[in-house]
Design brief:
This protein is α/β, with parallel strands linked by helices. The protein has helices spanning about 15-25, 45-55, 70-80, 100-110, 140-145, 175-180, 195-200, 230-250, 255-280, 285-290, 295-300, 310-320, 320-350; strands at about 5-10, 30-40, 60-65, 85, 95, 115-120, 125-130, 135-140, 170, 205-220.
Length: about 350
Amino acid sequence: MERISVIVPVYQMEKYIAQCIESILAQTYKNFELILIDDGSTDASGRICDEYAKKDGRIRVIHKNNGGLVAAWTDGITAAKAPFVVFVDADDWLSESMLETFAGEYERTGADMVCGSYFLENHCGAVKAENSTSTGVYGKKEIETKILPTLLYTGEFLGRGFIMSRCAKLIKRELVLENAYWAADGITMGEDMCVILPCILSAEKISVINDACMYHYRSHGESMTHDFGDNAIEKIEALYEREKQIIKAFDCEEVIGWQAAQDFCSLCVNVFWGEYVCRGTFSNMDRFRCSAYYQVARDNMESWRYPGAIRLMAKKLLCKSMAAYLYYSAVLGLRRNLTRIKAALQMKKTSKN
């Protein structure tokens, strides 16, 4: 098989970048180039990259002023010389046979995209995350009939048929270049969607190999719940607006337009849940209730599909009366306090043992 360009954006990753590079250099498949984009790091990341480049001629380092993740991707794709690209985040790592497995799958199928799974790694161990779409090779007709109907919404909270991360995939460089303009510096949450979604819609053949779980995604927090920040809801709105533009451009509103709305609702509630669990506040929700996008949630949200307390958060979002709003706030507060007490007791028990 022809060469692969492995593209790694690097910013302030001196703690992890060596492990990432070592895992790539240890690949059983050797016919690759490694492009490290130092995006204006002020720590030792750039120096570490340069030291590795001196030792291995397959490594190229691009030093640039900080321009953000999307700009770093673009520079990497532009600089790539191979017909296939693999994206890796600088704090993640690969199992040694990942490139060989992906290259072999391309040789077997000729797919425009080879899509694997990944392990979510945290202090408790590894959790496998795979595509809901079944393992198989999908031509254009199968993409339309078997992938698109559940691409962005499987009927479950945060359920997508496809992992929309750019990582754990082998993609034809031309396919990425054709769709790279959909990425935007202003979209900083879910930005992978802006490239992977149009690539899927453009692809003639896609291979899904869920058993190929060889990408290790590092989760830095101890909890699976995250506080996404004070302006998170505006970021989700910007992502949804770009999704609508992509869907319209590919003339597939009838198939996945409604899915995008459901995905948007799930992402919004996930933001509200993360803020409340971490801080006990509802600032993102309060702003969203005054947003023009709030009607999208009122028209589309299937809160009855959401699990447990997440459903209570969705009901709080959609309620019309102040009495109901305060009621759900109180119930959520009670559940939050009970959860915190339970966690504290468990920690105390563990420390004694």
